[in-house]
């Protein structure tokens, strides 16, 4: 068997960009086989990160962006009083680190919520490759635009909404994101703790527990630990957005 350029083992063939099941989420469909081969040459597939370990810390120099392959990562910052503020949750196929491009330092820390593997892409090499492959450069701009939309959606999610609306919206967000990965949109496992989810939504633990319970009592959800089953998506959507399930909303399509 002839191995792709830059690849030395069968395992690397299975793990390569062209064979990755998440390819459609982080690579443009128009990227040629030759350009994918060039991209594979600069991608570093790091050893898995254990739960609770840092991918990078706030203030560290920016050298690369990272695509989550398996597992999940949260990004967070420390407030002036020393409390943690969680700014996002990142699933397989999503890219982390783009918010450091302007300052050349990471403004937030990235921490594994479970055993997680990532692809590390040196940014200088990616920029140079983008000049040779316009489709790749376009994809990078598209991902950056998605990050901006996500930030705007998060602001909308947390502004002037009740606890029930916030929780309903974030669960629908995860539903859509799992569906984009070919997984069930109605039954999924949340990778974060309720404490972290409450931190992200701006809700204290007691409020989180009451809110989950109210949504269960209304017949919208079924909860078993971290396992969530959406029982009435139409009603959950109505609660979150005051509209039907086909309506568009940046907080639904963006990343949390």
Automatic annotation (TrEMBL):
A GO molecular-function annotation: DNA binding
Span of domain HTH crp-type: 161-234
Keywords, sorted A to Z: DNA-binding, Transcription, Transcription regulation
One Pfam family it belongs to: HTH_Crp_2
Record Gene3D superfamilies: Jelly Rolls, Winged helix-like DNA-binding domain superfamily/Winged helix DNA-binding domain
SUPFAM superfamilies, per the entry: cAMP-binding domain-like, Winged helix' DNA-binding domain
Entry GO CC: cytosol
Residue span, Cyclic nucleotide-binding domain: 27-110
InterPro entries to which the protein is assigned, alphabetical: cNMP-bd_dom, cNMP-bd_dom_sf, Env_Response_Regulators, HTH_CRP, RmlC-like_jellyroll, WH-like_DNA-bd_sf, WH_DNA-bd_sf
Keyword flag Cell inner membrane: no
Protein name: CRP/FNR family transcriptional regulator, anaerobic regulatory protein
């Amino acid at each position: 068997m002839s191995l792709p350029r830059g690849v030395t083992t069968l395992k690397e063939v299975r793990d390569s960009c062209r064979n990755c099941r998440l390819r459609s989420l982080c690579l443009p469909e128009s990227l040629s086989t030759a350009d994918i081969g060039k991209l594979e040459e600069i991608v570093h597939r790091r050893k898995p990160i254990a739960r609770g370990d840092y991918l990078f810390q706030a203030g560290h120099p920016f050298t690369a962006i990272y695509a989550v392959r398996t597992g999940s990562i949260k990004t967070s910052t420390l407030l002036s009083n020393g409390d943690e503020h969680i700014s996002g949750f990142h699933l397989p196929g999503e890219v982390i680190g783009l918010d450091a491009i302007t300052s050349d330092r990471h403004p937030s820390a990235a921490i594994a919520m479970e055993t997680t593997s990532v692809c590390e892409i040196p940014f200088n090499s990616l920029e140079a490759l983008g000049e040779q492959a316009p489709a790749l450069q376009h994809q990078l701009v598209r991902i950056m635009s998605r990050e901006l939309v996500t930030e705007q959606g998060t602001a909308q999610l947390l502004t002037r909404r009740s606890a029930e609306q916030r929780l309903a919206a974030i669960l629908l967000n995860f539903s859509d994101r799992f569906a984009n990965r070919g997984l069930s949109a109605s039954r999924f496992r949340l990778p974060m703790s309720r404490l972290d989810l409450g931190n992200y939504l701006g809700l204290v633990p007691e409020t989180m527990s009451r809110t989950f319970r109210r949504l269960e009592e209304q017949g919208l959800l079924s909860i078993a630990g971290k396992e969530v089953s959406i029982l009435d998506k139409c009603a959950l959507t109505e609660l979150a957005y005051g509209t039907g399930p086909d309506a568009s909303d940046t907080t639904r399509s963006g990343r949390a």
